[in-house]
Design brief:
The chain has 3 helices and no strands. It has 84 residues and is mainly α.
């Protein structure tokens, strides 16, 4: 049951990102859930890839937020006139 839920979530995510019909996403979800169900090593591989992707995305967001904060502070210092 959990495999079907994970397969459905994976399938809808793939279909959403590709912008195509749900058939490709459903097929990918079905294959992934069958692979995970039949192979404990497959579960580790797919779980590790998913976790690595999440950590990579989190790192990218933090870098982007840090760069945006530096840019905002630089723009503030340029916009304020220096008084003596």
């Amino acid at each position: 049951m959990i495999g079907k839920l994970i397969g459905g979530m994976l399938g809808s995510s793939i279909a959403e990102k590709s912008g195509k019909s749900g058939a490709m996403g459903a097929m990918a979800g079905l294959l992934a859930s069958n692979f995970v169900r039949r192979s404990p090593i497959g579960a580790l591989v797919i779980g590790g890839a998913w976790l690595g992707h999440k950590l990579y995305k989190r790192n990218q967001e933090r870098r982007f937020e840090g760069a945006a904060q530096v840019a905002r502070s630089a723009n503030k210092s340029k916009a304020e006139p220096k008084s003596r």
